[in-house]
Structures are given as C-alpha cells and as structure tokens.
Please model this.
Amino acid sequence: MTDKLPLETERDCLHLRGDWTLAHYRKLRARIGRATVSASRLDASALTGLDTAGASLLVQALGASRLRELLEEANGLSGERHALLAAVADAMSEQTPPSERRTYRIGDHLARLGAAMIRSQQSVQLFLGFMGKALATLFVDLPRPWRWRYTALVAQLHQTGLNAVPIVLLLNFLIGAVVAFLGATVLREFGATIYTVDLVGYAFMRELGVLLAAILLAGRTASAFTAQIGSMKVNEELDAIHVQGLSAMELLVLPRLLALLIVLPLLSFLAVLAGLAGGAAVALMSLDISLTRYMAIVQEIPVRHLLLGLSKAPVFAVAIALIGCLEGFKVSGSASSVGEHTTSAVVQSIVAVIVLNAIAALFFMEMGW
Model:
C-alpha cells in the first residue's frame, strides 16, 4: 500500500488507491476514517485489488446510494469490479445501519402479537382443512371394506392402545391416591372423611380419567405419529406413495385416527378404574373405610357422570390423531425439522385437550348435566 490515503478527495474527484482486500481490511478501516469522501466523480485507476471485504468497507464509508451514483461515471473501474461494488451496495442497502435504527417497543410488541395471531389463524384454518379432508376420506371408505387397511389398523391399536395400558394404569392409580390423600386432609377437619370417596369417584368419572388418558396419549402417541410420518417424508417415502397413485390419507392418517377413536375410550375407562383403585387403597389403609363400604358409595354415584366423561374421549382422539399426523406432513425434510414438529405436536395436542375439556365442562355445567 502507498503512503497516500486509500480513499481521498482531490478536486471534487474521489480516488481509490491500493489493495482493497481482506488482507488489508484493518489498515484500510483505520485510514479511511480520516479521509474526506464528499465528491462527484470516482477514479479507480490506482486500485490494485478488490474483494467483497473491501467493497463492504467502501459502502460503509460512502453509503450504498452515494456509491451507486459514483459508479455511473466511474473512471478506471473494470466491469467485474463495477459489478461487485454494485452487488455489495444493493445487498447492504437492505440493511438499516445501526445508527439509523429506531426501536418502538410498544409497536414491536404489537407487531409480534399481530404476527402470532395471524399464524394461529392460519394454523387453525390448516387444521380444519386437514380434518375435513380426513373425515371426507373416512366417509368415502366406510362403505368400501376392501379399501380398509386392516393390518395398519391392528398395528396402531397395539402400539397406541395395548402398549399404553401399563403407564395409564400406574399414573391414574397414583393420582387417585394423591386426590384421596388431599381430600381426606381437608375433609378430616370437618369430620367428613367419608366424602373422600365421592370426591375421587366424581373427579375420575367426570374429568380426571379421560383427561389424564388423553394427555398421556397426546405426549406419547401424537409425537410418535409426527416422528413416523416426518421420517417418511425425509426419506421420500411419501413421494413414493404419491407416485404409485396411493392415498397417504388412507394409508397413514385413517388407521391412526380410527385406532385412537377405538383406544382412547377404552383407556379412559381403565383410567377411571385405576383412579378409583388408588382412592380405595388410601381409604382402606388410612381412612378406615372398608372396601365394601367404598364400593357401595361408588355405586351410588349416577352413571351419567361416567358417560359424560367418556363422551369426551372421541373428540380428544380426533384432535390428537389429526394434530400428530398434520405436524408430520409439515416436516420440511431435515432431522431438525422432525424434532421441531414433534415438539410442536405434543404441545398443540396437550393444549387442545385441555381447551376442549374446559369447553366441555362449561357446556355440561350450563346444560345442568
């Protein structure tokens, strides 16, 4: 590099000198800080080297719009260097300099809120469209038994139902015991520990049995559906299905949907029994309530509460199955995308189950059921 400044204005002409490359980036940055860059013409005849690092430094010194003006009548600048400077100026013009950035905190929060609402609306619309397509395919295939996928259905029944029985029974037994302990702790002060049986019975028949079973399936089964279908998309197996003229909805979605529709009410019933068994264990060991007395009190609870609880199971099953399958189809084709959508499927399924359960509880309350 010469002793003259690499960027200097002489007689209304801006002179570029030396090697404007990454190797001299530090020195260039230090020296052009003292240069005057106001000029109407550009002379690059003394420029010996230029790369993107030097071009970006020049854009920072002059500004993207100013550099474009000077490039129109630049002297001694080859076509390649002219194109490089123009490309870097165009790219950097889209970025707002830090000094010109203005932050509107309230406005930014409102913008993010609006964007989140739009994404939520789009997700709901996409889910409703997917549900409509799945139900339409189901109604078309119901009168055509030769199109049913029996092997896939039985496999999903085994995976989502039979394999989930131990964890459902264990969890509901323990939570039934916990509910009985808590109820007894409060009711003992009023001398009404006998009503602990009613508390456990009503809670599991009407709410906790189906809710806990659905949440377990949301975490266990929805994630499995997403991972399975997402992996098939990554391995291009879905493309192979379409190429062969087969329906991914019939092959992948309907067996999983039907399996959950069959399995979840059964698992919910088992969950109710396990919760009552947990309450019975606490009543027998800690509350001096015999098993015969416990069963007699449970039998006095109207059966409609059990039916109301089980009536929510098919709704939860549809939501869990469709969310899990839809997130699998959303996978973009990488392993990280499979993980992201698997997590999203679990979160969305659990939120959907809780929201639907709250809506059902309010509806039943308003109807006086």
Remarks:
- The chain has two domains: 7-99, 125-367.
- The radius of gyration is 34 Å.
- The chain has a mean pLDDT of 84.
